[in-house]
Amino acid sequence: MSQQISNGRSDWFKVFIIALIFALLVRKFLFSPIIVDGPSMQPTLYDRDQMIVNKFIYHITKPERFDIVIFHASEQKDFIKRVIGLPGEHVMVEDNILYIDGKEVEQPFLEQHDDTPIIYPIITNDFTLEMLPGGYDEIPEGYVLVLGDNRSNSTDSRSLGLISIDQIVGKTSIIYWPLQRIHFLKD
């Protein structure tokens, strides 16, 4: 009988170890949580929003315009921003209007869609791609231009330069905490 109890404990221990390894692999390679730090993505995301990052998506597809991505800004810090410009494109903002290759592009995500009071208007200072670090006239292959939704309070491509697709950790589109903000983000 003690042999059966010992085998039962051994089996449960094996199951626990396998489940732990599986959970660690999922977190490392597929999905992981992230907490928004700061106001740079308001009004879309707020400080302390908790989200799930899809880490494998860009192994099978390329980033698309307006994806919200997490990328390595440094070895110690990851940032969350929105993809605005893609390889081969020219980006500029003039009078708060986004132009891609000279054509006006709507940015509906900058509009307030909830009951949170607007603390400050969303204003993007005028810039052209040539004015950003690197001085490119077109976004090179393998890079994207990212901006925070809170354009007046965001460290993004305007100061960091273009972001290598290799720096991107993944895409996020699900807020799971706080409970009153649970929802999928629209592209």
From TrEMBL:
Domain of life from the UniProt record: Bacteria
CDD domains: S26_SPase_I (cd06530)
One Pfam family it belongs to: Peptidase_S26
InterPro entries: LexA/Signal_pep-like_sf (IPR036286), Pept_S26A_signal_pept_1 (IPR000223), Pept_S26A_signal_pept_1_CS (IPR019758), Pept_S26A_signal_pept_1_Lys-AS (IPR019757), Peptidase_S26 (IPR019533)
EC number per UniProt: 3.4.21.89
Record's GO cellular component terms: plasma membrane
Enzyme class: hydrolase
Residues in Peptidase S26 domain copies: 10-177
Subcellular location: Cell membrane; Membrane
TM segment ranges: 12-31
Keywords attached to this entry: Hydrolase, Membrane, Protease, Transmembrane, Transmembrane helix
Location of the active site: 40, 81
GO molecular function: serine-type endopeptidase activity; signal peptidase activity
Catalytic activity: Cleavage of hydrophobic, N-terminal signal or leader sequences from secreted and periplasmic proteins
GO biological process, one term: signal peptide processing
Membrane topology: Single-pass type II membrane protein
Similarity remark: Belongs to the peptidase S26 family.
PANTHER family for the chain: SIGNAL PEPTIDASE I
Protein name: Signal peptidase I
